[in-house]
Write a structure and sequence with these properties.
The protein is an alpha/beta fold. The protein is about 25% helix and about 30% strand. The N and C termini lie far apart (about 55 Å).
């Protein structure tokens, strides 16, 4: 039987504060040992994604900031209805599926993880969205030539290198290089007048905070949602930002 690494002493997390380290370890613990399953994603009394598939080594939407982002997208359909969208770092596909169901004209979802790509592909088929949605394996925009009116990116929040031997940690941890690469590369994929939508957990600090980092790449940042999350696995102040290029 494979021995699980002792994450409480792993060197990659030493750069984090005690609170940040607890958050990451709690998230990894909650995800540990959970196999492939389906979840009921409930946005409102009449709005839900029934039997949404979630694979191992892919972030679960429930209890995470990704649920707040998907809920925002479900309610604020005017940003993508009838438009083209990109969901970068799609994971289970929760953001892209929500937009496709909510009226996006076409959507491309992408993730570097083969598990995430397979997970998203199943959800595209489950929700019968193959006519407007597709998924590809890509490191950010590496394998994407398309442009879009809306780009969504639920990026890693906590400022540390991913933990060796823990694939899921790539979704939670980045030392700060990824967000700058994304912001710079996104310019050639965002159509004129389009916007980028990104969430953030404020307790993760400034390193990966779009409100702090996006202006360095010529983006105007607006806070469109801010709320304290007390009940999930990512506790603290949660923000959702709109980014628009200063032209």
């Amino acid at each position: 039987m494979r021995k699980e690494p002792d994450l409480s002493t792993t060197g990659e997390l030493l750069s984090l504060s005690d609170d940040q380290r607890r958050q990451v370890l709690n998230q990894l613990e909650k995800h540990g040992g959970i196999g492939r399953h389906t979840a009921e994603i409930v946005f409102s009394e009449g709005g839900r994604l029934h039997d949404f598939a979630v694979y191992p080594e892919v972030l679960r939407p429930i209890g995470m900031v990704s649920f707040y982002l998907a809920s925002y997208l479900y309610k604020e359909k005017q940003w993508y209805a009838g438009k083209s969208a990109l969901d970068i770092g799609c994971g289970s596909g929760i953001q892209g599926i929500t937009m496709a169901v909510g009226g996006a004209k076409e959507i491309i979802m992408a993730d570097i993880s083969p598990q995430a790509v397979a997970n998203t592909k199943e959800n595209i088929e489950r929700f019968r969205l193959s006519n407007k949605a597709r998924v590809i394996q890509s490191d950010l925009f590496e394998n994407i030539q398309d442009t879009a009116d809306v780009i969504v990116f639920n990026h890693p929040f906590f400022p540390a290198e991913p933990i060796k031997g823990v694939p899921l940690s790539i979704s939670m941890l980045d030392s700060g290089k990824l967000i700058h690469r994304f912001l710079e590369d996104s310019k050639s994929h965002l159509r004129a007048g389009g916007c980028i939508i990104m969430p953030y957990l404020q307790s993760a600090g400034e390193t990966n905070d779009p409100e702090i980092q996006a202006p360095k790449h010529g983006f105007k940042v607006s806070v469109v949602f801010r709320q304290n999350g007390y009940t999930g696995w990512q506790k603290g102040l949660i923000s959702i930002y709109h980014l628009e290029l200063e032209r």
